[in-house]
Amino acid sequence: MALKGLVVLTHLGFRVKADNSKKLTFINIPLKNKLGLAAGLDKNGDYIDALASLGFGFLEIGTVTPRPQPGNNKPRLFRIRSQQALVNNMGFNNKGVDYLVERVKKRKSNIPLGVSIGKNFDTPIELALDDYMTCLNSVYGIADYIAINISSPNTKNLRDLQSKEFIHQLLSSIKDRQLVLASIEGYKPVLVKISPDMDKTELKILSESVLLNDLDGIICTNTTTSHDHHSGKGGLSGKPLFNSSTLTLKTLRGFVGNGFPIIASGGVMDLHAFEEKIDNGADLVQIYTGFIFNGPSIVDEIINVKTQ
Fold first, then answer.
1. Fewest CB within 10 A of the end CB: N or C in the chain?
2. Is 152 a catalytic residue?
3. Is residue 4 part of a domain?
4. Statement: the pTM of the whole predicted model exceeds 0.85
């Protein structure tokens, strides 16, 4: 596995040398640069130190659920080399929140760390809040920020949580709990990760709820179900996602205003795509599929340019 190989290289002293002269702050988190790794690659916090050696400004691990679960049936991950794309139907396969917390406690690097949380596959959508609360309580003390993943297409009905029927109660309850935890452990930002497949009306409703409930930011976006891959399921990421995710970003920025924190993700395969995300309203940018296809070279390309 590539990540295990990265661990070996890290032990041998491998590092991406980064220009850290231009430090910044995002939602009160000090960062060395604007590039992060999106959730999904390190689901359990097993590779934090190795990934930190690559020069990322921050990492997001998970998505983690209260109980361990194997995820959806295999095959569930497909590489489309001709399009620089992936289709995945993983389904939040992870070792459970308790395992992730213990792994984070053992890390040696101090890279800023986000933790993405979700619900177990067999938790009814009406009880999803319970799962998010369990994970929020568990990871709050070890995360620099928490990402509420309500947009994966690979857990049945999960995206319903973005709808008018569920979104306000979910976010208001999470906000209330965040403030309780903040009074005990200090304030940790909470962001919500959204889908690129919402129409303008749906996105407006979600944006209004995020602002009303004083969430700290939005991650824009998850994968798209708009594809014709032979598997018939899963979310498409990589280069074909760039246009729709960037359009969602641009529309979202119009709804939330210029000062609201947004992390952009979706189809960032090179420096040009990174810069387009920034130009269209992103404060920070995450990569995933671009890293799968290009390896550490894409990190070096982006973080060491003088335009940042």
1. N
2. yes
3. no
4. yes
